[in-house]
Amino acid sequence: MGAYIAQVDRVLAAAQGVFPAAGGPGSIQSQGPGVPAAPPDSALSTGAGNAGDGYKRTWGTVTGLDAQTNGTSAAGAAEGQNGRAGATGVRQSAASAAAAIAPATGSPAGVKTLVTNMDDRLAAMQRQLDSTRAQNQLLATRMRQMAMAYRQAGQASQAGMFRGMGGGGGMPSMGMGGGSGGLPGMGMFSKLPGMLNGQNSRNATDQLTSDLFGRDGNGSDRANRAVAFAKSKLGAPYVWGATGPNAFDCSGLTQWAYGKAGVSLPRTTYDLVHTGTPVSRANIRAGDLILCNWQNGRPEHVVMAVSPNMVVEAPNRHERVKLSSLPSGHLEIRRVA
User: Fold this and answer.
1) Which distant-in-sequence residues (6+ apart) come within 8 Å of 114 by Cβ?
2) Helix 250-260 vs helix 217-231: angle between axes, to the nearest 10 degrees?
3) Cα–chain center distance at 198
4) What are the residue ranges of CATH 3.90.1720.10 in the chain?
5) Alpha-carbon distance 213 to 337, whole Å?
6) What ranges does the record give for the region Disordered, renumbered to this chain (predicted)?
7) Could you tell me which residues come within 8 angstroms of residue 17 by beta carbon, excluding any fewer than 6 positions away?
8) How far is residue 193 CA from its own chain's centroid?
């Protein structure tokens, strides 16, 4: 059985090696613009002043995008470290279980116990990989959205400076609105040219990016922490009425995870459906609560999104806390952080 245990450990070690051992995210550092004034006697003073104002407004827009990019980068680093910690825990638990069961492997029952236990550890590692992959796909989509936003901001800046100096010249939507395809939500970036013509472009950009990534950076961080806490309980048993930390029912899991992240939630699905702000199915992001299994006008189940198409849930007394696909049927999505 030693060779079998060694083979299982090699597989688990390979999976553990997928996750980064150390290292932090990069970041974008922004410096405020310095725009020299035109000479007082210059006939270009008005045009130069307008161009300078346009440049400052563009900088305000890009600073907001920088903050969102840095936040997404930090979330990616945190997800990598969470994955590494989870994978390390699975491997260590497999080693401990193998050592404890080894003395009994002289009998068929002991061998069966060992194989079953190792199968459970391999399945746990696969769940960890699947969870991290789904979260990374979401973060990659966010980065692509930010890249498009930077591009649109630059084009809008040129439009504002060279087509009337703030006189309202807009930019084409580049086919990102309506049903023209591309990344979900990209039509919102067609608003950027108009924002750059306003006097408070930073606030306007904050509103735009909050539509994609949450009401503020802290809220998005709390949601990501809640997701991480919920995923840390993968494999925990379902017990009706349980609120953790070792067993959960559906709403107990969401309440416990958000509580650990510093957000207080009601106890039952009947109350959760009235909590936070409603979100459309097309705009689901990590941390959103999804109310489902509707009966007699009320939701009988709640799950937590870990990506636009994957959730973590405490499903029922026959199953443990697990990752699942987005539920079907009528859904109501609430954003609570």
Assistant:
1) 1, 4, 5, 98, 101, 102, 104, 105
2) 130
3) 31
4) 220-335
5) 11
6) 25-50
7) none
8) 27
CATH of 220-335, one of 3.30.420.40, 3.90.950.10, 3.90.1720.10, 1.10.20.140: 3.90.1720.10
Contact 263, 336 (CB under 8 A): yes
CA distances from 259 to 194, 256, 268, 307, 320 (A): 40, 5, 14, 20, 21
Distance CA 212, CA 13 (A): 37
User: pLDDT tens digits, residue range 37-67?
Assistant: 555 555 555 555 666 666 666 666 667 667 7
**DSSP type of residue 336:** -
CA atoms within 13 A on the CB side of 16: 18
Residues of 87-101 as b/e, b for ≥16 C-beta within 10 angstroms? beebbeebeebbeeb
Phi/psi at 157 (nearest 5 deg)?
-60, -45
The whole-angstrom separation of Cα 313 and Cα 252 is 10
Tens of pLDDT, residue by residue over 86-126, are 888 888 988 988 899 888 888 999 889 989 988 988 988 88
Q: Name the β-bridge partners of 310.
A: 307, 325
SS3 state of residue 294: strand
Distance CA 295, CA 63 (A): 47
pTM, to two decimals: 0.44
